[in-house]
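--- STAGE predict ---
source: upstream dedup step, 1 unique chain passed
mode: sequence only
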Amino acid sequence: MLLAHLQQPAFPAPQEEPVEDPAPELDTKDVLAAAERFPWAPAAPGDRHWPDGEFLDVALSVVRTEERQGYIERLAAFVEQHRERLEELLRTYGPGSRPASHGRYALIGQPETLVVLERMEASPFGLRSEWEKELETVFLDDLEFAWGPRIHLSR
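--- STAGE serialize ---
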């Protein structure tokens, strides 16, 4: 018995840990298609100011790994929760409004803005940080003012 005990390895062989599936990538086209389904985004594809999606790319870069699964459903819940606020924002600052006629608030009414607003609520500091690295802040400042978040990050 002593011999059998001495012949056993001192430590059990390490078992390989199961490899978890990496978080799904967010498909920009799928997210944009979902945002276009909401009536808040009246801009037709040909009427978009930024068809290359740079604002959407920056906003989606702030979505954390654990938030990627089911992000489109999260966006739908955000739109439903803030429907009245979005409608008021569109009436007050959207296409055809007085502020919009001066060239400001150009993001309002664009489908990708729903993602920007959702990120503004969910991760305001992350959004501001990434935006400042990639884009002019005037668009985010205007959107932040119009949306009226609890925290003003630009001041």
